[in-house]
Design a protein that fits this description.
361 residues, alpha/beta, Aspartate Aminotransferase, domain 2, Aspartate Aminotransferase, domain 1, seven-stranded mixed β-sheet, three-stranded antiparallel β-sheet, 13 helices, globular
Length: 361
């Protein structure tokens, strides 16, 4: 910071650049959001903690509750921190297949039955990254009943609670009676209020787990920059029109992408939530796998997607397409993909090689 900038900060608001734990006002705003959105009443002092984004909160809670040798159940495919947060803490991760083609509750019961030692915790993420899968409150009710019976802690990542398109707002696991006995839920202002670079989120739920996270964080950080906390409080307490605006923007992008890929000869499922589409690889390219197909799209169509294998073994055969560009650029991307799939921007020798590789597979 330059001397002049430092002087301005001292003159206008000297406390703004000091160390600052989460303000009581921000914790109250987080609790008020849960009361308004989910009709869940929380104690701001004992059941709410502010995090530097939901990713940081989950990884640090993993450090707080995990010891080497513990078993943790993680969906597969999943957002990488859901698994690696616990791997870095020394836990053994057991994957539970997730997606429209799997019975998650059935797979969970099998995983618990065959886990030695018994699982310590399970991570949930609905609406899901990368699959965009959603669940209802009945699903959470079954999860809570099962996990209470088996003494399993539930860590629910609800980062995409406000990005949904079917007029069915995603529920919180804390709406289920008794969930607070075993569950902590993570929320992020990154998606809800487009504050991704600000690194601000919060966790709510079981007071003992929130206290454990607070203990670990006390050794690692001093809380978010005060102006960011003020902005987060204003976002949570202020007019919520922006949430609807952001949601509709993603809906419009989704529609452009799905329609454009359909016209390109690559029909994909229409995501019901999140800022992602989870797209099966076109049949002609399934033999080469998601990583090779993603490289082809980048090299031949100038379109970047995430290979499904990067989210776990059960992500193979898919790519994740992010709705982070505007509609004009998404239209251009689908036109480029159409040209690639139709062979108009092809190198014949390369395509013959790809088809031979796919046939051999």
């Amino acid at each position: 910071m330059s001397p002049s900038s430092s002087k301005r900060c001292r003159t206008r608001e000297p406390t703004a650049i000091r160390y600052r734990a989460a303000s009581p006002g921000l914790r109250r705003a987080c609790a008020a959001y849960y009361a308004r959105r989910f009709e869940v009443e929380l104690d701001p002092e004992r059941e709410v903690i502010v995090t530097l984004g939901s990713k940081e909160g989950l990884a640090n809670l993993a450090q707080a509750i995990t010891a080497p040798g513990d078993v943790v159940l993680v969906p597969n495919p999943c957002y990488p921190i859901h698994a690696f947060g616990f791997i870095m803490a020394g836990a053994s991760v057991r994957h539970v297949p997730v997606g429209p083609e799997f019975d998650f509750l059935g797979e969970l019961k099998k995983a618990v039955q065959h886990s030695v030692p018994a699982p310590l915790a399970i991570v949930l993420n609905f609406p899901a990254n990368p699959t965009a899968q959603t669940v209802d409150l009945d699903f959470y009710g079954e999860i809570v009943e099962f996990c209470r019976h088996h003494n399993i802690v539930v860590l629910s990542d609800l980062a995409y609670a406000e990005i949904y398109f079917d007029d069915k707002p995603p529920p919180s696991i804390l709406e289920v009676p008794g969930a607070r006995d075993i569950a902590v839920e993570f929320s992020s202002l990154s998606k809800t209020y487009s504050m991704a670079g600000w690194r601000i989120g919060f966790a709510v739920g079981n007071a003992r787990l929130i206290a454990a996270l607070a203990r670990v964080k006390s050794y690692l950080d001093y809380g978010a920059f005060t102006p960011i906390q003020v902005a987060a409080t204003a976002a949570l307490n202020g007019p919520q029109d922006c949430i609807v605006e952001i949601r509709e923007r993603y809906r419009a992008r989704r529609d452009v992408l799905v329609d454009g890929l359909r016209q390109a000869g690559w029909p994909i499922p229409e995501p019901e939530a999140t800022m992602f589409a989870w797209a099966p690889i076109p049949p002609a390219f399934r033999g080469i796998g998601s990583l090779a197909f993603s490289k082809l799209l980048l090299e031949r169509a100038n379109v970047a997607v995430s290979p499904g294998i990067g989210f776990g073994e059960y992500g193979e055969g898919f790519v994740r397409i992010a709705l982070v560009e505007n509609r004009q650029r998404l239209r251009q991307a689908t036109r480029n993909i159409k040209a690639f799939l139709s062979g108009r921007n092809d190198i014949p020798e390369l395509r013959r090689g790809e088809q031979s590789l796919a046939a051999a597979s």
